[in-house]
Amino acid sequence: MGKTFEKKLPYKKAICYSGYREGQCPTGEMPSKEQISEDLHLLVADGYGYIRMYEPNAHAITALQVIREEKLPLQCMIGIDSLPEIRRNRWLRL
Question: Which superkingdom heads the taxonomic lineage of this protein's source (predicted)?
Answer without folding.
Answer: Bacteria
